[in-house]
TrEMBL record:
UniProt name for this protein: DUF6594 domain-containing protein
Lineage: Eukaryota, Fungi, Dikarya, Ascomycota, Pezizomycotina
Superkingdom as given in the UniProt entry: Eukaryota
Residue ranges crossing the lipid bilayer per the database entry: 210-233, 239-261, 268-287
Domain DUF6594: 17-280
Keywords (A to Z) from UniProt: Membrane, Transmembrane, Transmembrane helix
């Protein structure tokens, strides 16, 4: 039997866990690292731990009532205020009651640690980003493909349904740009960014290509909103119409920032204020800030005359 480790020879691993692991590990963008959170089981486990600790809490309260209402050995009373005495009485087995109380204290310590670690882990998973819909669809189509030699999904048994509940999935890595514009390009024009995957049989969408396309589109859109507003106002002579156009272009800019990006509210306010300030400076420089006779401005020249 040859037990030597073979490097990747370019061939696909066998069906099952080896092939699924190979698919996830050789994803170029690492966005295929999608796993189940098991929300229902995690919630139930937290509830069971909570109930178990609640019982321990009740037992601790009973011990406290017993120690308060009955006379004890003087050192036992001392052990309620001094850990060293408590440890000596419990470890020496001189006081059976102290042994029980020490065992309870150690049990509570371990269960609380387990409970808090489970809470922190579940909170961390809940705060992770959801996988992109296109990534889930691509992985599901590959996972559930029926053209394998067995005519079944890549994994069998209960694992056949691992992609069925999208809300129970978590991605260890999601594309860096998950704004609405990126998702729009990904969902509607993803076919233009497909590349051959590592298995040589399926196609993947290149995250880098999508990011570059979205960056170019964002630059063109921002330039169009800025210079388009300036050019359009050069053809309007009525100062009130110009003010209305300033407001309209500002609203359009704020809408683009709010709906096409993941900018926060303070960032939207700052960007909109800066954009409005640019338009105000342009209008004041072009029209001199003074309307002409009859509420109209003088001839529109994009250079200020002396």
């Amino acid at each position: 039997m040859n037990s030597r480790y073979h490097e990747d020879d370019g061939q696909q691993p066998m069906h099952g866990f080896p092939r699924v692991a190979y698919k996830i590990a050789h994803d170029a963008d690492r966005t295929g690292t999608i796993y189940r959170r098991f929300d229902r089981l995690a919630s139930r486990n937290l509830l069971l731990l909570e109930a178990e600790i609640a019982e321990l809490e009740g037992r601790q309260a009973e011990y406290d009532y017993e120690d308060r209402d009955r006379p004890n050995h003087p050192r036992v009373q001392e052990s309620r205020s001094d850990w060293k005495t408590f440890e000596e009485l419990a470890n020496g087995a001189k006081q059976p009651n102290e042994v029980e109380r020490m065992e309870l204290a150690m049990t509570i310590r371990g269960k609380l640690r387990e409970y808090h670690e489970a809470l922190a882990a579940h909170q961390f998973l809940l705060n992770l980003e959801r996988p992109a819909e296109t990534t889930v669809k691509g992985m599901r189509d590959w996972f559930e493909a029926r053209n394998t030699r067995f005519g079944r999904p890549q994994l069998w048994g209960r694992s056949e349904d691992r992609f069925r509940d999208v809300d129970d999935l978590v991605a260890l890595r999601v594309p860096a740009n998950q704004d609405r514009l990126s998702l729009f390009v990904l969902n509607n024009f993803g076919v233009f960014f497909k590349t051959r995957s590592s298995d040589g049989h399926t196609a993947e969408i290149s995250e880098r290509s999508v990011a570059n396309a979205v960056a170019l589109l964002s630059s063109l859109l921002s330039a169009a909103v800025l210079f388009g507003s300036m050019v359009s106002m050069c053809f309007v002579r009525n100062v009130y119409a110009v003010l209305g156009m300033v407001g309209g272009w500002t609203v359009l800019f704020a809408g683009c920032i709010g709906f096409l990006t993941n900018a926060k509210r303070d960032q939207i306010f700052a960007a909109t204020a800066a954009y409005a300030a640019v338009l105000v400076v342009f209008v004041s420089g072009t029209f001199g800030g003074v309307p002409g006779a009859g509420g109209t401005a003088t001839n529109c020249n994009c250079t200020q005359t002396s």
